[in-house]
Amino acid sequence: MDESVDVVVVGAGIAGLVAARELVRGGAEVLVLEARDRVGGRLLNGELPGGAPIEVGGQWVGPRQHRILALLEELCLDTYPTHTAGRSIAEIGSARSEYTGRIPKLNPLALADVAQAQWQLDRIARRVAAGEPWLAAEAETLDGQTFATWLRRTARTPGGRSFFRIITEAVFSAEPEDMSALWAAFYVGAAGGVDALISTAGGAQQDRVVGGSQTIATVLAAELGERVVLGAPVR
Question: How far apart are CA 189 and CA 14, in angstroms?
Fold first, then answer.
């Protein structure tokens, strides 16, 4: 390929595809180069027996995620509520817990510890997310430690620490050792608090995309047409 364009976008995840779409709307000649043989990045649909789609990547949308909801509406994609009937199952340490509601069954001391740690995290998160995170009063201190370190200093019981580790793994798809406390606080604050992140109805797991979440990327790519080139790693 020997082609001259105004902008090359590297990666055909949602961010790259939306960026390319906005540039094209502004009159720019754009090329999207994607190393893989598909679009979507961290969004990927699988297929259940019988042909129904199932997400094996990013899955949910919630009421505070205004930008993705606006994009879904613009692309004429529908959502449907996440199934919530029945009990939830959590494994905390070596114990398996079946429960209803947001929080697994913990002993009273661990529950109190979860409550006080969540209160502290939500309080810091509101301050950090209120403006530019790096300019927050405690930004340097928070960014100088991992979220794991912050949790170890804040949560006082093994059950409380295990609970927040499970939340971190579920929400961030990473371990608390893999991110700074500043990033975790900003993310929590931007979402509206811990409860908003771990809740289904009214929270971040409230809805799913009809046809699977990767449909968002495939519709965007179809709109961009030949401007999206797959199997084209950038070196």
Answer: 23
pLDDT in tens, 59-84: 999 998 999 999 999 999 999 999 98
Nearest-angstrom CA–CA distance, 195 and 202? 9
Q: Give backbone dihedrals phi and psi of 46, rounded to 5 degrees, phi first.
A: -105, -170
Q: Is the pLDDT of residue 26 over 90?
A: yes
d(C-alpha 196, C-alpha 5), whole Å: 42
Task: Give the whole-angstrom CA distance, residue 75 versus residue 221.
Answer: 12
**CB 229 within 8 Å of CB 32:** yes
Distinct helix (H) and strand (E) counts, the chain:
9, 10
Transcribe 73-124 into DSSP letters: HHTT--EEEPP--S-EEEEETTEEEEESSSS----HHHHHHHHHHHHHHHHH
SS3 31: strand
Do 48 and 211 form a contact (C-beta atoms < 8 A)? no
* Rounded Cα–Cα distance for residues 33 and 10 (Å): 5
**What is residue 207's three-state secondary structure?**
strand
Check: pTM over 0.90? Answer yes or no: no
